[in-house]
TrEMBL record:
<dbReference type="InterPro" id="IPR001650">
    <property type="entry name" value="Helicase_C-like"/>
</dbReference>
<feature type="domain" description="Helicase C-terminal">
    <location>
        <begin position="231"/>
        <end position="374"/>
    </location>
</feature>
<dbReference type="Pfam" id="PF00270">
    <property type="entry name" value="DEAD"/>
</dbReference>
<dbReference type="Pfam" id="PF00271">
    <property type="entry name" value="Helicase_C"/>
</dbReference>
<dbReference type="GO" id="GO:0004386">
    <property type="term" value="F:helicase activity"/>
</dbReference>
<dbReference type="InterPro" id="IPR026362">
    <property type="entry name" value="DEXH_lig_assoc"/>
</dbReference>
<comment type="similarity">
    <text>Belongs to the Lhr helicase family. Lhr-Core subfamily.</text>
</comment>
<dbReference type="InterPro" id="IPR017170">
    <property type="entry name" value="Lhr-like"/>
</dbReference>
<keyword id="KW-0436">Ligase</keyword>
<keyword id="KW-0227">DNA damage</keyword>
<dbReference type="InterPro" id="IPR014001">
    <property type="entry name" value="Helicase_ATP-bd"/>
</dbReference>
<dbReference type="GO" id="GO:0003677">
    <property type="term" value="F:DNA binding"/>
</dbReference>
<keyword id="KW-0347">Helicase</keyword>
<feature type="domain" description="Helicase ATP-binding">
    <location>
        <begin position="20"/>
        <end position="198"/>
    </location>
</feature>
<dbReference type="InterPro" id="IPR011545">
    <property type="entry name" value="DEAD/DEAH_box_helicase_dom"/>
</dbReference>
<dbReference type="GO" id="GO:0016887">
    <property type="term" value="F:ATP hydrolysis activity"/>
</dbReference>
<keyword id="KW-0238">DNA-binding</keyword>
Length: 795
């Protein structure tokens, strides 16, 4: 190894040697180091040294990645030093994209280093030979640990590590990340039994400060919108003046839109690609390889490339729209100039005036090293059910030993015996209301006291359907010759008829026919609509929201803003007021024959959407005749036929005890959450051998079971899990509760004669929702200017 470093004119960095020292001492370790600091090599260095000094047969190191693309990229970069040193070390990937024949061979003759994902590891643990395959495992390396440790994928991985530790007691755990706000939280998550003292923290050297600019439009910062497409000519100019650029978008639909707009502005016909999670494997690999080979000048991407994919030629990152969090921004910036001693260059393109403030707040947060906090929570029970079933597929188990093993994973360390018994009972027979049906009797307790799978078909069913990522029902998009382009959500695809056109995978596609699970298309030159996705929308983090509040209130900061943004805030102060950071400003005013209320709470889109539902229900009960609401990350606007004279009554904390419970139980939210936990928990399968269920079939099955359980077993394990998901993830109930708890004491009500400047961005959304998709964009812009002119008048 020393000769290899010297031959390249390199020397090992301090943190790489510290990781090697921790390994030689047999310690678990967490490395927190800047992008470009050689984290991946630091994680693998002990493995390479051990395999060179003491060659062994069989699996030595497991590398766990949150992304398939990252696993493939690491394999490519790891093979280079191995080949150049001439050592006989096999490195292979195993993901959902790996061919079946290779997967079978890997279990029989595993490589020394296997790169995989949490889901693929869980599947490996469901095979009988996993007990011998992992017996000699020395190290698990978890890359980009921040990307999943606090979610359900992290729960699955924590459980898998607890199982691996039992199979290989001497196994070391290693985690890597560039963006960890709470290292001790991650050390506890990583450690066996949550013992933080067992994990050594290694801090990397500080890299060069990034060079980040906010792109200002040639005209004015827009009043509304979040795509930043107004700046497409300027973005194209940045691409033309850099070697390789990644253009990040916050959603898949926006990525398709931005790609098409860039292509229209691409007068030099530079090679540009698009990359997101709904594209086919072939399309993604093609784009990744083209980037690796230096054949693309730009790649439009989503979070599918947020993490450590290392393309050395990338010298600029552009973020379309606000970043929504300082940690996410830092990750994305790190994709440019993947070297520690060179500044990463990035450009932010805010979509509107509030997003300009958010972009400025994100820049300050990155400069001051403030990352978004990570919230660790108890492990999900649907994930636990899936893991226990995987273990049962591998071998019969004793319940007491299984509980002890599960508790060794930090998310489940406080799991009570009664809850564990309920999970076991659910897997065994589906629960009280479903136990009459044989299809739910997956486990049986034998006379020897061990639990085992009831029949082999349940093992095949588990392996076919296991997984934590549950997408919305999808349709495959393919040409009639069979070539797949990727997937669109069924909710979008079902709106299409033969002859309709839509942009996808960078192409204009015309629908030939719609089948049960497929959308058959052909290439077209016609103008097309853009794909829309209903996936979770990124909300501004509390960290950035607090900074935006301070920006608004601190007049000394306003001189840092463009003239039109400064004017916007100055007129707001004269016409209404600027709230203090701890205040919730609520404005009421008439507009176009209706009464409006706008609350500026900055608690994020999810919390505001939920609050809008609750407030309109309460307005209905109070006779205020609501007509609707719109929300963004910064504000909520409600409009109706009667004037709201007492906003505080609408923000009472008891709304969470009454309207919230009724709304969630009656809305599609809970059914959607139940669909996910039922799939993860193994109650409903997505696929049968040889065929795949359509999204409608899966939804019909879960809705049917949901209705039965609601009626006959309302305290069923999965209903409780669905309720927890709906509260935490879909409604952001934590931020909503904080808003309602503090609103009465912090509310500042301004009753105005007409719309205020700060209300313009959210009011324009009402006009947008009235406009049919794909039409009237010019009319909408005219309406926006009209509302803005009214708001900015000083008389």
């Amino acid at each position: 190894m020393t000769d290899w470093f010297a031959g390249r004119g390199w020397r090992p960095r301090r943190h790489q040697l510290d990781m090697l020292a921790a390994a030689r001492a047999g310690q678990h370790s967490l490395l927190v180091a800047a992008t470009g600091a050689g984290k991946t090599l630091a994680g693998f260095l002990p493995t390479l040294v051990e395999l060179i000094e003491r060659p062994t047969q069989g699996l030595h190191t497991l590398y766990i990645s949150p992304l398939k693309a990252l696993a493939v990229d690491v394999q490519r970069n790891l093979l280079t030093p191995i080949d150049e040193m001439g050592v006989p070390i096999r490195v292979e990937t195993r993901t959902g994209d790996t061919p079946h024949e290779r997967k079978v061979r890997q279990r029989a003759r595993p490589p020394e280093i296997l790169l995989t994902t949490p889901e693929s590891l869980s599947l490996l643990l469901s095979y009988e030979d996993s007990l011998t395959m992992f017996a000699g495992l020395k190290t698990v390396v978890i890359d980009e640990v921040h990307a999943f440790a606090t979610g359900k994928r992290g729960d699955l991985l924590a459980l898998a590590m607890a199982r691996l530790q039992r199979l290989a007691p001497e196994m070391r755990r290693v985690a890597l990340s560039a963006t960890v706000a709470d290292p001790d939280g991650y050390r506890a998550w990583l450690a066996p039994d949550g013992d933080i003292d067992e994990v050594t923290l290694v801090q990397g050297e500080k890299g060069a400060d990034p060079n980040i600019a906010i792109l200002l439009p040639e005209g004015r910062v827009p009043w509304a919108g979040h795509s930043g497409v107004y700046a497409i000519p300027q973005v194209m100019a940045e691409i033309e003046t850099h070697r390789t650029t990644i253009v990040f978008c916050n959603t898949r639909g926006l990525a398709e839109l931005v790609f098409q707009q860039l292509w229209k502005a691409n007068e030099l016909k530079l090679p540009i690609g698009v990359h997101h999670g709904s594209l086919s494997l072939e399309a993604r690999r093609k784009a990744e390889q083209a980037m690796a080979d230096g054949k693309l000048r730009a790649l439009v991407a989503t979070a599918s490339l947020d993490l450590g994919v290392d393309w050395g030629d990338v010298d600029c990152v552009i973020q379309m729209g606000a970043p929504k969090g300082s940690s996410r921004l830092l990750q994305r910036i790190g994709r440019a100039n993947h070297r520690l001693d060179e500044s990463s260059e990035a450009v932010l393109v805010p979509g509107n005036r509030f997003e300009y403030l958010e972009a400025r707040a994100a820049l300050d947060a990155v400069e001051q090293g403030e990352l978004d906090p990570d919230v660790f929570r108890p492990g999900a029970l649907d994930v636990l059910a899936q893991h226990i079933m995987a273990c049962a597929c591998a071998a019969p188990f004793d319940a007491a030993q299984m509980l002890q093993e599960v508790r060794a994973a930090l998310p489940y360390s406080a799991l009570e015996q009664e809850t564990f018994d309920r999970v076991l009972s659910f897997i065994a027979d589906g629960g009280y209301s479903l136990r009459a049906y044989d299809k739910f009797k997956r486990l049986t307790k034998g006379q020897d006291g061990l639990w085992r799978v009831t029949r082999p078909s349940f093992i095949a069913q588990h392996r076919l359907n296991a997984g934590i990522i549950v997408e919305a029902p999808m349709l495959d998009v393919r040409f009639k010759n069979g070539r797949r382009l990727g997937k669109v959500e069924e909710a979008f695809g079902s709106q299409l008829s033969p002859g309709d056109t839509f942009f996808f995978a960078g192409l204009s596609l015309e629908v030939e026919r719609v089948e049960l699970t497929d959308l058959i298309v052909r290439a077209s030159a016609k103008q097309a609509r853009y794909v829309s996705y209903m996936g979770a929308r990124l909300a501004i983090t509390a960290t950035l929201a607090n900074r935006v509040r301070v920006f608004l209130h601190d007049r000394g900061q306003w001189q840092r803003f463009p003239a039109d943004v400064r004017e916007w805030l100055e007129v707001q102060e004269r016409r209404s007021t600027i709230p203090a950071p701890a205040q919730v400003l609520v404005e009421t005013f008439p507009h176009e024959g209706k009464h409006h209320m706008v609350a500026y709470s900055f608690e994020g889109w999810n919390a505001h959407q939920s609050l809008g539902m609750l407030i309109t229900r309460r307005m209905e009960a109070m006779g205020l005749k609501p007509l609707g609401f719109v929300a963004n990350d910064y504000a909520l606007a409600v409009y109706g036929l009667e004037k709201i004279t007492d906003p505080a009554a609408l923000f009472s904390p008891d709304i969470l005890e009454h309207e919230f419970v009724d709304w969630v139980q009656q809305s599609a939210l809970l059914k959607r959450a139940f669909r996910e936990v039922a799939i993860i928990g193994g109650l409903v399968e997505r696929q049968h051998p040889g065929k795949k269920k359509s999204g409608r079939q899966v939804t019909f099955s879960t809705d049917l079971i949901y209705d039965v359980l609601r009626k006959y077993e309302p305290d069923h394990l999965l209903l409780k899990a669905a309720w927890a998901d709906a509260r935490a993830r879909m409604t952001d109930v934590g931020r909503l509760a904080h808003l309602l708890d503090t609103a009465a004491d912090t509310m500042l009500h301004m009753d105005l004669e007409r719309v205020s400047p700060m209300a313009v961005p959210v009011l324009i959304m009402i006009g947008r929702e009235r406009t049919p998709q794909g039409s009237g964009e010019d009319a909408l812009l005219i309406e926006a200017e009209g509302i803005a002119a009214e708001a900015m008048r000083l008389d």
